[in-house]
Amino acid sequence: MANKGIVLKKQIVYLSGAMLGCTDEECRDWRDFAKLYLKCRTLDPMVRDYRERPMDGMLDMVVNDKLDIDGCDAVLVNFIKPSVGTSMEVLYAWERGKQVVLVVPNGTVIKPVARLSQPSCVSFYPGCCAAYK
Asked: Is residue 52 packed enough to be buried (19+ CB in 10 Å), middle (13-18) or exposed (0-12)?
């Protein structure tokens, strides 16, 4: 991530990325890496892990994810697979003027909707997620 010149020198960074349909490793490994790498306060939506019963936690997830984004300075997005929740978070952050940084696999074409927020984009860091080791 650092070799592209994107700097997150903000005090609080929200860690956005797909959760539903992902393994524990896909959800947690990159977030754990980001927490160490960023050396700042992070907000991790995995504290609300409703993957096994998503309909039970839908309102809690959406409301509290939005509150976390309201309370952050920047949103770091692991954009490795399509996710309705992640897309909502990117749009919500953009509408509030938050810095949005998408981390994508090398060679990924960012869809026009994701480009709406005019985020910073960086190439995928190979150690971020167990799925790409």
From this structure: exposed
